[in-house]
Amino acid sequence: MPDMTAPYTSTRYRPRKKDLHVTFGHYYRVDVFNSTLDKQLHELNSRFNEDAMELLSLSSSLASKEINVDQICLLVEKYYPTDFNDQDITHLRYQLELFNIERSNNTKLSGASTISDLCKSLVDTKKRETYYLVDRVIRLILTLPVSTATTERGFSAMKIFKNRLRNKMSDDYLANSLVIYIEKEIAENFDSESIIDEFKNLKGRRAEL
Prior knowledge:
- By secondary structure, the chain is mostly helical.
- It has three domains: 1-47, no CATH class; 50-142, no CATH class; 146-202.
- The protein has helices spanning 24-47, 50-59, 69-79, 86-105, 107-110, 115-124, 132-142, 144-161, 171-182, 184-187, 192-202.
- The radius of gyration is 27 Å and the shape is flat.
- The termini are far apart.
- The mean pLDDT is 77.
- It comes from Mikania micrantha.
């Protein structure tokens, strides 16, 4: 292990006089560690927009020892308006307050360190029906990684399908082709004969397929 207080000399570039004060510690901390963090932060910022980051930040309260009721209600109002009406949000607030009290007295619920563990704990303790709105919020949040991955795969597949030679295909045809390509593991289970029979039954044909 090098002496972190010793002057650092680059083996790739010719050293300059003003670089003589740079130590190994400064090099690894600034040029290596901080540069790596900057690249990772840039990648995360380009992958997740502000809404996604806010959604993840608000949902992190579910994994804490005490759920922030105001944060979860704000999350539901802003991002899931079609899944919760005004009455549901009011009941959700009451359920979250009661859940915080019961969670502090229940070792199985308090032992959940992640949102997925909390979802499993609700099922194991048979509290899913009691706190059905809390369970709904958790399950909606747990679908975020799947939704993000599916969206990314969709954009990647679109670059393959809609190229210069196929730029005039209709939206319906493009959507159907993308579904088959993205979900190709499921599509491989379909039999060609069953697809032909289904297509034939949709409309009467003059000739047999």
